[in-house]
Model the fold of this input.
Amino acid sequence: MIRSRAAAALALAVVAAALPLAVGAALLSAWRDGEARLAATEATARRLETAAAAAPELAEQREALAARRRAGGLLLPGGSEALAAAALQNTLKAAVAEAGGSLISTQALPAASTGGLTRIAVRARLGADLAALRAVLHAIDAARPPLTVDRLEVRAPAGGGGRLDIHLDVAGFAEATP
Done:
């Protein structure tokens, strides 16, 4: 009986000594996990602070690129499809007037967006002689921003002579609007 009491006391002493060690090990492990999470959170915070500090400079660079793109003369001016179509109509109107033709009508065609650009097209009907038509087509070909003639129909007047009846679609590109 003394032996069993001694064995029980010894077992109790071992458990009593091991319990604080086990609790200490668990607390130490939790502490280290907390430190690792804190370090990861601090690293994320530093990255976010760096990104936030760079945001104004990146916005300036983006605006400079957009200004260079607009100044490069490759896109129709205007902040919307309607303004770009109006600019295209004005370019066509000036080309026809300078060539000595008469612009009878214009109609903006539906815009088509692709790859960050919007294709702007105008359908026009004009009256002109052959020399004026050649001058208008040359003006369209030499225009800045670049323009293309997508469709061209030329009809001679009934009875010959006089002005030609000309139908054409002219297109250019503008920056896509969100």
The chain has two domains: 1-71, 81-175. The longest strand covers residues 102-114.
